[in-house]
Design brief:
Two copies of one chain form a homodimer. The first copy, chain A, is of the alpha+beta class and about 260 residues long. Chain A folds into two domains: about 100 residues, Pseudouridine synthase I, catalytic domain, N-terminal subdomain (Alpha-Beta Plaits); about 150 residues, 2-Layer Sandwich (Alpha-Beta Plaits), CATH 3.30.70.660. Chain A is built from six helices and ten strands.
């Protein structure tokens, strides 16, 4: 059995997330497995590094699968891009050691959450950014973010109810970058904020709950210091709202 | 009667172009007129500065309409953005002199045509850029563009068969800018070219035929010098192919 590693991009808007589900065939993993099974005549299972939620996008998702095939890497890549829907693309495909596992071998991930401050609708960014009407205090959000960087129990920042597994993770950095988007630059209208999260791994909904909480700090609904109390409490209800899926993109998965 | 000037943005993908048509209500002008007629209880006609084709986008379309209404500018703007589909937005709306006409008073326009060089599908740019597999020779395209800048009879660069009106226009500049798109920068994969056209006015299909012709120069299928002959011939069949609509965006309309 050969093992193939893929770099994938997708716009999550139309899908029920990455993970295959019994109730729907409308998942990214499902679409890829169906295509590869058809291509090889075998039942193919794909391992994805990150299980992105419904509506979340990826610029650098990594996945691998085992298959018995004589096809070259190039042939597989071209076959897949020919038959995949236009909102999913295979950017590269390489044969790797049989022991490579995209999720278990991953040592880190980077996510980006895009927020646009505007009172007007955003025609061109509407699928890929969360638009907020209120002006945000970036300095306050940066101060709040510092409480989250480092190794912590992020139990208060996940929606996962199954309580057995460790909820300790290391957030290496949170960068809050201010941009002016090209589409608005001409009108001098608004600014965009990109929250960049680098960590060793992320819990279910973790990036979106952290972002939702930081946005409440940015809107002066909470004080930066509250973050320490929320972390210590371990209570989901103390943290902020879940930020909408469409603003989130998996940028990259890192390996040793 | 009050006269209102609007700045509009839209993603043209789903529409049959700007101009109202008898055969379909799926045009930008049609959607706007229907909404304003409903809002005012009067039959409203809109004048748009540029009649963008089906699939062409706008970041800075300008349009005006006359209406008998007591509503404030802000009320009209908010009403429109509440009821317009999410791929059309009113960015600003101001009452202007009764004699202002968005098309007749316009002194210039700027269009941008985006081309991406890549052998891979482009998930995030698929609606707004034309993807070409072949690497393009930007220097050759710049040389070719110089033959087009200035005041010329652009008859060879329009699809319009009705031959009465003047086909003389002034192209103030063609800038060919090379970018690396954010989505691909991480993978170091491809480059993007933006053709910026500034002129006093543009004929039907003019920007797309010029772009299609420049792309043939960039792919070394034609020599830059041929442009002079094509211009002089006045024959549409001598020019290059019509570039796809989705790469084109109306960036701005200029007034004195």
């Amino acid at each position: 059995m050969r093992n193939f590693r893929m770099l994938l991009q997708y716009e999550g808007t139309r899908y029920q997330g990455w993970q295959r589900q019994e109730s729907t065939d409308n998942t990214i993993q499902g679409k890829l497995e169906m295509l590869l099974s058809k291509m090889t005549g075998q039942k193919i299972e794909i391992q994805g590094a990150g299980r992105t939620d419904a509506g979340v996008h990826a610029l650098g998702q990594v996945a691998n699968f085992h298959a018995d095939t004589q096809m070259t890497e190039k042939e597989i890549l071209e076959y897949m891009n020919r038959y995949l829907p236009e909102d999913i693309a295979v950017i590269s495909l390489k044969e790797v050691s049989e022991r490579f596992h995209s999720r278990l071998n991953a040592t880190g991930k980077t996510y980006c959450y895009r927020v646009i401050h505007s009172e007007l609708p955003h025609v061109f960014d509407r699928r890929h950014a969360h638009v907020v009407e209120q002006k945000l205090d970036v300095r306050a959000m940066e101060e709040a973010a510092q409480y989250l960087v480092g190794t912590h129990d992020f139990k208060a920042f996940t929606s996962n109810k199954r309580g057995k597994k460790s909820t300790v993770r290391t957030l290496e950095s949170i960068q809050i970058e201010e941009h002016v988007s090209a589409s608005m630059q001409m009108q001098g209208l608004q600014d965009e904020i990109c929250f960049l999260y680098r960590g060793d791994g992320f819990l279910y909904h973790m990036v979106r709950i952290i972002t939702g909480t930081l946005l409440e700090v940015g809107a002066h609904k909470r004080k930066p210091e509250e973050i320490a109390e929320i972390l210590a409490s371990g209570l989901r209800e103390r943290a902020g709202e879940l930020a909408p899926a469409k603003g989130l993109t998996l940028l990259e998965v890192r390996y040793q």
